[in-house]
Design a protein that fits this description.
alpha+beta; 6 strands
Length: about 260
Amino acid sequence: AFAGGVYPTYSVVFTGTDKAIVEKWFKDQLKSISADMGGKKEVMSIGTRLPEVSADTMRVFVKADQPKGSKDVTAHVAFRVDNVFIGPDSDERQREGCRNWMYQNSVMLKKNLAQKELEAGQKQLAHLEGDLAGLAKEKERAQNGIEKTERNNIENEKERIDAEGEGKIMETKVESKKQEVATASTEENTKELQSMMKEQEKLRKKAAKLTEDIADGKKKIEDLQFQIKQNLSNQDAKAKAIEAQKKVVAELTTKLAGIN
C-alpha cells in the first residue's frame, strides 16, 4: 500500500538487487520528464509528461517492496491523470501506454543490473587471472633462486676444499716452524711462526664460514622447493577457480543478452 492507500498498479519483479536501487532508478527516469518530485515514504513525480499515456500531465507513484532476506524486489507503479488512477477500467490507450513505459524502463533496469553483475564477474575473473600470473612469477623466482644457490654451493664447496687443503699444508709448515723455533729461537723465525699461525687461523675460519654457507644454501634450497610445491598446489586451485568463474561470466553474458 502507498501512503495514500491502495492504488491500482503495474508491478515488476527484479532479482538480485534491493528496493533502494529500484526506487532510485524509477525516480531518475521520472525526474527528467516531471515538473517536480515529492513523496517521503515512496517516490512521487508531479507534472509528469507521458504523451503515450495522456496529453495531460500526471502524477506517478513508485513503491518497492522487498521481503526480509529476499533477493527479489517488486516495484509497484501507479499512474494518476486528472485525479483518477489508471486501472483495469481505464481507456485502453492509457493502459497500453503505462504498460509500455513500465516494460521499457524495467528492461533498461534489468539490463543495467545484469551489466553490473557481469562487470563484477569479469572483474573477479581478471583478479583471479592476475593472482595466477603472480603465482607463476613467484615460482619462476623460486626456481631461479634454487639454481643460483646451487651454483653458489658448488663454488663454495670448491673454495672450502681449497681452503682445507691449504690449511693442512699450513699445519705442516707451522709444526715444522715450531720445531725450528724450539730448537733455535730467533726474532725472525718467531715472527715467521706468528705470521704462519695467523694465516693458518685465517684458512680455518674461511673453511668454517664456507661450510656454514653451504649448509645455509642447502636449507634455502629445501625451503624454496617447499615453496614451489605449495605454489603449484595454489596454482592448481587458482586455475580451477578461474575455470569456474569463466562459466559464471558466460552465464551472466547469456543472461544479459536474453533480457528484452
